[in-house]
Amino acid sequence: VAFVVCRSLEGLKTFSYLEELILDNNLLGNDLLLPRLPHLHTLMLNKNQISFQRNTCKMLLDHLADVVPSLQYLSLLGNMACPNELVCKEHDEDDYQRYRYFVLHKLSNLKFLDTRKVTRREREEALVRGAFMKVVKPK
């Protein structure tokens, strides 16, 4: 397990056998670039600056799918990308569920997303409609 407070993830490339990585409470955004970590199964990115601006979150999820193929546990709580009603009163449970479908569409091997276990029904829904479930609120 690595606990990192950082502005750069440059040094992670030397830990290719890393299995768990907690990057909570940093200033990491959608431009987050991890080195290839083939054994990483748990990634915590809580309370950072990840958002659904433009297509950058899609690119981040595509990047994670590529560099952390063994990822099973991901948490994005406390980021603008995660429309949790506890963090932002403008969002509701439906927004959060659409976010889950979108993330599961991109990262289909996840067993847990945030604090919830991924259900079979969610996985099926993510396959069918997940690509269209990005949460966007009009201004």
How does this model look, in words?
The structure is a single chain. By secondary structure, this protein is an alpha/beta fold. It has one domain: Leucine-rich repeat, LRR (right-handed beta-alpha superhelix). Helix content is 26%, strand content 11%. A 6-stranded mixed β-sheet has the order 1-2-3-4-5-6, with helices on one face. It starts with a strand and ends in a 10-residue tail after the last helix. The mean pLDDT is 86.
Structural key phrases:
3 helices, six-stranded mixed β-sheet, 139 residues, alpha/beta
Q: Using DSSP, what is the number of strands?
A: 6
What is the overall pLDDT average?
A: 86
Strand percentage, roughly? 5-15%
CATH topology value: Leucine-rich repeat, LRR (right-handed beta-alpha superhelix)
Q: Roughly how many Å is the radius of gyration?
A: 14 Å
| Domain module tally | 1
Quaternary structure annotation: single chain
InterPro entries: LRMDA, LRR_dom_sf
GO biological process, one term: melanocyte differentiation
Organism: Bucorvus abyssinicus (Northern ground-hornbill)
Protein name: LRMDA protein
Task: Kindly summarize this structure in a few lines.
This protein is of the alpha/beta class. It is built from three helices and six strands; from the N terminus they run βββαβαββα.
What is the secondary structure topology, with strand pairs?
Elements: E1 2-3, E2 20-22, E3 42-44, H1 56-67, E4 73-75, H2 93-106, E5 112-113, E6 116-117, H3 120-129
Parallel strand pairs: 1-2, 2-3, 3-4, 4-5
Antiparallel strand pairs: 5-6
Helix pairs in contact: 2-3
